[in-house]
Design brief:
Layout lengths: L3 E7 L2 H17 E7 L10 H7 L6 E2 L7 H18 L5 E5 L3 H12 L4 E4 L11 H12 L2 E4 L2 H10 L4 E4 L3 H14 L2 H5 L9 E3 L4 H4 L2 H13 L4 E4 L2 H9 L3 H6 L3 E4 L4 H9 L3 E4 L2 H10 L2 E4 L7 H5 L3 E3 L4 H9 L15 H13 L3
Parallel strand pairs: 1-2, 1-4, 2-3, 4-5, 5-6, 6-7, 8-9, 8-11, 9-10, 11-12, 12-13
Length: 362
């Protein structure tokens, strides 16, 4: 049989992490072309992850960044179409997660008659007001192979009557966390570099459109962060930084003195701060899961989550932008047990095996 030929589309930090668990296996016995849309164009959100995780440099970088979700997706479609049309025909197009890059990659592939494989298929927050939820639902409908992180995700697809082949492979981010978190936890120097001590600070991020694009919501976010028991290390996403400056709220964030604003961090430094934190406060999907895997409490600044198992087991609490609820969540007792929810750290192997089984290759 001829080697499996895969064209992979990535665009943001979580997708680089996920691809790092899969790309080595694809390249060991096949041929992968990695296309980076440029959705995260800041070096601290992009190339540093390639370097830290050993992910091969992308064969193509499209430089499509900024703009609204609609305009960015439209520009990605226009940029990806000639790339996929001109490349030697891949056996499948592989996409990860729920971003504009995910949707654009799946849609162009489907329109060109190429099979789509979706890693992290079936995740649902059941909030269609989230751009990510729209991306997930549409991508799953376009996919021939749906690779699920959990049985809950597979059950969502079954209930929706999604036609593609579904397999539960586990979560590829567990593979990377299992490899990185033990040594990241030991990097107390990375924690001390921010002027905090292990177990005595909160690590925070925020970037969701619902929290930062509306000035009223952003003001509530700032007040919530200032209400948290400090110190708080806030890794500030470029989108959030721009909104704070635009709405004149950047000064207010620094008034209280308890919030220490830092630039976006690489994967290892982020992992060190997550693993050694008293708790993580975030609206990121990926960090909810990374906190769970690290055995650290998570307080999620959303009213819904696709990672429902972390809430059901008591390690994650949804508080929206309610400061009182966030403070209560930080004081609630943690469960004694932390079940293994998302696999055994070999999801990358299963993804590669499923791709070869579905689309050919040795």
């Amino acid at each position: 049989m001829s080697p499996l030929r895969v064209l992979t589309v990535v665009g943001n930090r979580p997708q680089f992490i996920k691809a790092a668990a899969v790309s080595p296996g694809l390249r060991a016995g096949g041929d992968e072309v990695l296309v980076h849309t440029g959705q995260h164009h800041d070096d601290r959100l992009s190339s540093v992850f390639f370097a830290e995780l050993g992910l091969p440099a992308p064969e193509l970088e499209l430089g499509v960044a900024g703009g609204s979700n609609t305009s960015q997706t439209a520009r990605m479609l226009a940029a990806l179409e000639p790339v996929l049309a001109a490349a030697p025909r891949p056996d499948c197009v592989l996409v990860y997660g729920d971003t504009n890059s995910t949707l654009a990659g799946a849609l162009v592939a489907a329109q060109l008659g190429l099979p789509v494989a979706h890693v992290e298929a079936g995740m649902r927050s059941f909030d269609m007001g989230m751009p990510e939820e729209l991306n997930r639902v549409v991508c799953d409908r376009l996919s021939s192979l749906l690779l699920c992180s959990s049985e809950v995700a597979a059950a969502n697809l079954l209930r929706e009557g999604v036609a593609g082949r579904t397999e539960v492979v586990g979560d590829v981010m567990v593979d990377i966390a299992a490899a990185v978190q033990p040594r990241a936890r030991a990097r107390k120097d990375l924690v001390a570099g921010h002027g905090v001590a292990p177990g005595r600070y909160l690590f925070a991020t925020a970037h969701r459109a619902a929290n930062v694009d509306d000035p009223g919501s952003l003001a509530r976010l700032v007040e919530l962060l200032l209400a948290l028991p400090g110190p708080v290390v806030l890794s500030l996403h470029p989108r959030t930084r721009a909104r704070l400056a635009s709405y004149g709220l950047d000064g207010r964030l620094r008034e209280g003195g308890s919030v220490r604003v830092v630039e976006p961090l690489g994967y290892v430094e982020t992992a060190a701060l997550v693993c050694n934190a008293r708790a993580v406060v975030t609206d990121s999907g990926g960090l909810q899961k990374e906190a769970y895997l690290a055995g650290v409490r998570c307080v999620t600044l959303r009213s819904t989550t696709e990672w429902v198992e972390t809430v059901e087991t008591g390690w994650n609490t949804l508080v929206g932008l309610d400061a009182a609820a966030a403070l209560a969540a930080l004081e609630a007792p943690l469960p004694e047990r932390r079940p293994s929810l998302y696999g055994d750290g070999r999801a990358g192997e299963r993804v590669v095996a499923a791709l070869r089984d579905a689309f050919g290759g040795p």
